[in-house]
User: Fold this.
Amino acid sequence: MATSTSKEPQSQYRHYMPQSLLRNYAVHKDGYQPSTEKKGKGKSTPPQNLDLLDLKLGELKQTSLNSYFGLQDMYRDFDKTNTDQHKLEKQLSRLEEEASQILHTVKTRFEAGKTEIQLSRKEKGKLRKFLFIMLYRDTLYSHYNKSKEEHDDVDREDMLQYMEQKGFKQPRDVWFANTSVFLNADIDVNNANPLDHERTKELLQTMKAKLESQAYPPDAAWFLTNIQGQSMHFCTPNAKEDEFLMTQNTYSE
Assistant:
């Protein structure tokens, strides 16, 4: 009789800075010489490296674009009862792809000399959600990546009570559940009529109540503040030739 065995989920390296953004900092390898032969429609080989300043060694070096700004199994749910331990990463990838397309459009129009760029309400909503998730993912390691016994932050009592109510075993489980809720939240509260303020207020209250019932309330409030109470801005350097230095641990600050 044939028997079936389930394979152990593979370990995966995941970027906490989306590669669609990271490619904007890519450079060609030192000594690179562009080919004189045309490839396709005259397209050159895209750069695949990053210039890095190693502060410990005091050296400027290069590394592969794929090997930096990431961690091993960053979004993997190690619960063995979970049949898809990389489900959250797949959800995040879809949002990142949508956001990268919007940002690429903005960048292309700006480089073409456009001084004004209009985004639809739906596009702005996706960008707001994307930016919050980029910020929120940092809390996985600064706040949630501890055992229940080790969790000693100021919200310890509230967290443990919430975990008991929801049946979570570890704080990390709360983060996974919260992130899934935020990824799937419908934040387009003005989809019927932007000028109908009473209807907007009603929808906001409904969304707030729903989020607070599905996610850890302090984090749900944080999500709503970022989505509703903050504006987005695109910033560019005064001089095109200016370089931008980004440290390894400040992307989500």
Observations:
- The mean pLDDT is 80.
